[in-house]
Amino acid sequence: MAPLDRLPTGIATLDLILNGGLLRGGAYIVQGHSGAGKTVLANQIASHRIGQGGRVVYLTLLSEGHDRMMAHLAQMSFFHPEALAGRLIYISGYTELETNGLSGLSRLVRTEVERHGAELIVLDGLFAVEETASSAHAFRRLVHELQAHAHVTGQTMLLLTNSRHNPASPEYTMVDGWIEMADVRAEGRVVRELEVHKFRGSDVIRGRHRYRITHQGIEVYPRLESLSGLQPAPPLDTAFVSSGMPKLDLMLRGGFAAGSATLLVGPSGTGKTVASLHFAGTATPETPCLFLGFYESPERLRHKASGIGVDLTALEAAGALRLHWRSPAEMLVDEVARWLLDEIERTGARRLVVDGLAGFQQNLIESGRMGRFLTALGNELRALRVTTLYTSAMTGNGQSAAPEAQGVAELSPLIDSVISMRLVERNEAMSKLLSILKVPDRDFDARITTYTIGPGGIALAG
């Protein structure tokens, strides 16, 4: 059987969620509260269709005039009125609906679509139809007529509404798809989420996916866990990657396994970032490193590295290193993860430092997601053959070295090796201790080793 013809939205990640885009000849309800971005989304899809040589009829039932809507859209980079002229036709159906009711509106849709040869029809304000309808039956009959018209003509239809009913409501069962745009509130934050509740005739990526409204329009970030495993697992690599600290490499019996993930755990002041700078300092133009930090800016990292004899500026100039800082304040973790993976592929990075796992943890919102998210991220990094070093601060007094002290469940699928850095009071002074807790499939030196941090960086005893 031939695959169903698709109408891409032009938003690559939304098309990924929809398994290629909307289906031609399908009718879709896009539902969300006022301000959710339904109108922006519909115009963004319409603009893309125009750019592909199509024609679009945009029929609005809102009291807001087209001039005002276009003034708002003019701030979006996708919206170019001069390129849309004659191909994106805005029509007000408000008066027709008020004067001739649902039958008049149905007639107007058919007439205008045929007149302009549109492949995409947007009906913005389905809730106004519901409010005008003489009965629930009359409203459902109109939805059925619109859906049948789309099927017969092969045109795709978007029905925008801010009304939300029970998922079993007839209008949702009649259409080919239902996409919801919603706000989620947690701990004083509000984030936007998109979910495909229904999509007849095709698989989609289920669940709720974060999105933003920016000057570029709607930007969707599929949940990382839903994409994990799409890349094939690489063959086992028997090579080693230096930690940047020769004595630690000896304790590890060769260094970090290539393509593995190591967790460096310890309380503040133990030198986790210094250790990660040693690791970054081993990068070369052939095996570059990407350093993602949440708490220290690139300027502070360059200054700190210069104090231990690592010239980050020279590494950056040679193309061996890229420093990137993200504020941990209300970021979208799936956005950062997508950027991270894309940047690794773009630069060919073979080393990665994520300095401060808490930057991810405090922005996940959903309790219990941390293990799933990091496992998915780890799987993608392994598929890209990246050797990763994560740092994380311990909770409590820092005496426990167990990974559970991070508040991160099910770390085993993510972390290959675990190294603990601790502070211990001895003779009225604080001593620093390092121990290797876990290295898979090989022997290692498990002795607790003291260390100091000086001009040359971390110096392990012995």
Record the SSE blueprint:
Layout: E1 6-7, H1 12-17, E2 22-23, E3 27-32, H2 38-51, E4 56-60, H3 66-73, H4 81-84, E5 88-92, H5 94-116, E6 120-124, H6 126-132, H7 136-153, E7 156-161, H8 170-174, E8 177-186, E9 189-199, E10 208-214, E11 217-221, H9 224-227, E12 240-241, H10 246-251, E13 256-257, E14 261-265, H11 272-280, E15 289-293, H12 298-306, H13 312-317, E16 321-325, H14 333-347, E17 351-355, H15 358-361, H16 370-383, E18 387-392, E19 417-426, E20 429-438, E21 449-454, E22 457-460
Parallel strand pairs: 3-7, 3-8, 4-5, 4-6, 6-7, 14-18, 14-19, 15-16, 15-17, 17-18
Antiparallel strand pairs: 1-2, 8-9, 9-10, 10-11, 12-13, 19-20, 20-21, 21-22
Query: Strand pairing plus helix content: what structural class?
Result: alpha/beta
Task: Give the overall average pLDDT.
Answer: 89
Q: How many distinct beta strands?
A: 22
Question: Mind describing the biggest β-sheet?
Answer: 9 strands, mixed
- Helix coverage percent: 25-40%
* Computed Rg: 28 Å
**Approximate strand percentage:** 25-35%
Number of helices in the DSSP assignment:
16
